[in-house]
Design goal:
six-stranded mixed beta sheet, binds magnesium ion, 8 helices
């Protein structure tokens, strides 16, 4: 059974700025595979920030699906425009950071992408709100907010993973951990120095799974708070997080929440879906309206083997 309605075109939203480099050829292959499958497609190339949001707002009723050719930032823009509508989104791993595409196990090979459109499943996905703004993946408060703030201040052009090295290095040595008061679903659960994350998916940059058990469709957000006052404690937290054992630690809080308020002893920046987000105080909750996503059909055979490489990317 087709996942999408063939009588309405698929809209392809291309972000020419996002990790695009060598992917022109792959895009040409995708166009050819769509034509071979007989799926009509309309292409749109974005012209700048928020252009994707503006474009897709006009699509309900006119598009059977929106294929996003970009990274998490572009998916975020499309999601903002389609929240609360029935139009499903296929997030292709075509940017620098593709956390959502990895979480959903979206393939990168063009013919397999077309197979997701033809035979995939449509699933509901929660969208979060931070101080009234949408987010899709994860918010970091404190340390990584500072990293992204420094990165953005120094940014001159396209961002690669290497661009993060100096901002992380400098922040690591210079960061002064804020004191945080965290109220989750009406209860104060933390009042100490540290860093906090609120996530809708498990994946975070560089293979870390900070919100390890997060599910994007459970109507809840995963809150992780690392109690931390100096650099050595942060190193230990990072090591336990790499091992994915951090929720078991006594100095880490891990819980599912509907609403969380984070206040700090001074305004600190947040990182929201990889970009600079609002500064504290933050009110974070699940938005009343979510989005719909196209995902591959349920895995079978080799797909269920626990050691397959994709799981660690
Ligand atoms: Mg969730």
């Amino acid at each position: 059974m087709a996942a999408i309605d063939r009588s309405t075109p698929v809209h392809l939203v291309i972000n020419p700025q996002s990790g695009y480099g060598g992917r022109q050829l792959v895009l040409a292959d995708f166009r050819a595979a769509m034509a071979a499958a007989g799926l009509p497609m309309v292409e749109y190339t974005t012209r700048g920030p928020d252009d994707a949001t503006r474009y897709v707002r006009d699509l309900p009723g006119k598009a059977s699906a929106v294929v996003v050719w970009g990274g998490d930032g572009t998916v975020h823009e499309v999601a903002r425009g389609l929240a609360g509508t029935a139009v499903p989104i296929l997030a292709c791993p075509a940017g620098t950071e593709n956390l959502l595409a990895k979480e959903l196990r979206i393939p990168s090979e063009p013919r397999r992408l077309v197979e997701v459109l033809r035979r995939g499943r449509v699933v509901d996905c929660d969208v979060g709100l931070v101080n009234g703004r949408h987010f899709l993946l994860i918010i970091g408060v404190g340390f990584d907010g500072e990293v992204v703030r420094r990165l953005t201040a120094a940014r001159t052009g396209h961002i690669s993973h290497l661009s993060y090295f100096w901002p992380i290095w400098r922040t690591f040595w210079e960061h002064d951990f804020p004191r945080m008061k965290i109220v989750a679903d009406g209860q104060e659960i933390f009042n100490d120095f540290g860093l906090a994350f609120v996530g809708n998916i498990s994946r975070y940059a560089v293979g870390l799974r900070i919100c390890r058990d997060a599910r994007f469709d459970d109507g809840l957000l995963d809150l992780v708070v690392f109690s931390c006052r100096e650099q050595t404690a942060l190193m230990l937290h990072a090591a336990w997080t790499l091992l994915r054992l951090h929720p078991l630690r006594g100095d880490v809080l891990y819980q599912r929440v509907r609403h969380v308020r984070i206040e700090t002893d001074r305004p600190v920046p947040s990182e929201t879906d990889g970009d600079v987000g609002p500064s504290t105080p933050l009110d974070i909750a699940v938005a009343p309206e979510g989005i719909r996503l196209l995902v591959p059909p349920p895995a079978s055979g080799w797909g269920l083997w626990p050691w397959r490489a994709g799981d660690f990317l």
